[in-house]
Design goal:
This protein has one helix and eleven strands; from the N terminus they run ββαβββββββββ. The protein has about 240 residues and is an all-beta fold. The N terminus is likely disordered.
């Protein structure tokens, strides 16, 4: 994906390995302990579960992939659910500093065809630095205006206080982006899906873009449009 490497990156890694438990308090609290995929984002690691054949800029650069820690989830009746947890950070198993990272999600279904997911994560992610925080706010909205058409939007805003943009001494960097999706079922076995996306790495810290002259230009904006035609030849193919 080209995303900047983190301390826990390896050539071969276990994506998930966790234990779940249920505590019968109220409507029931579900716990997850171990390594698990992130709560953030509209797309996931497994290709067949995504609408498009490729991943978005937001998936690759704006948010983490996995975490190691503990999550607790509680149902909110027919309205949705809430999840909160403490993890070691972004894409690492062993923490790289003394600070823990907080992560949370609230998923709401205000009416039958609309689902809103509010996600957030904050904590120290720089090796050896427990004070400066990296924070991402993530929103995913899914709406089905008709049986064959589904729309989705994903917005991300990120900030890290302990990093300075290239060529400056004032710490604090930001990134943001928006992805809009549409999927239409032409038949029970054939659908078309489109994605339009804008990703602003205004401080050039997530993408690490380098120009032909070897510099690191600021205010970098990325745009893309992706169209996918998918056939289901068999329920397993």
């Amino acid at each position: 994906l080209g995303r900047p490497a983190t301390a826990g990156d390896a050539d071969f890694d276990v994506q998930q390995a966790y234990i779940t438990a249920h505590y019968p308090l109220g409507s029931g609290i579900d716990f997850k302990v171990g390594k698990f995929v992130t709560l953030l984002g509209a797309e996931v690691i497994e290709s067949p579960a995504n609408w498009n054949f490729s991943r978005s800029y937001l998936f690759g650069y704006a948010i983490p992939f996995t975490h190691t820690g503990i999550l607790a989830s509680y149902p909110l009746g027919e309205w949705g659910s809430a999840t909160a947890g403490v993890v070691n950070g972004w894409d690492i198993v062993d923490d790289n500093n003394k600070a823990k990272t907080l992560i949370g999600n609230i998923t709401l279904t205000p009416f039958e065809k609309l689902t809103l997911s509010f996600n957030g994560i904050t904590g120290g992610e720089i090796a050896g630095d427990s004070n400066d925080k990296r924070t991402v706010l993530d929103l995913v909205a899914t709406y089905q205006p008709m049986d064959k058409l589904t729309l989705m939007a994903n917005y991300d805003y990120g900030h890290e206080s302990g990093t300075a943009p290239a060529g400056t001494s004032e710490a604090g960097v930001n990134w943001t982006g928006l992805a809009l999706y549409a999927k239409y079922d032409l038949s029970p076995t054939w659908n078309l899906a489109g994605r339009w996306e804008w990703f602003s790495d205004q401080d050039n810290v997530r993408t690490g873009f380098t120009s032909f002259g070897g510099g690191t230009p600021p205010d970098v904006d990325f745009y893309e449009w992706t169209l996918t035609s998918q056939w289901t030849l068999h329920k397993h193919v």
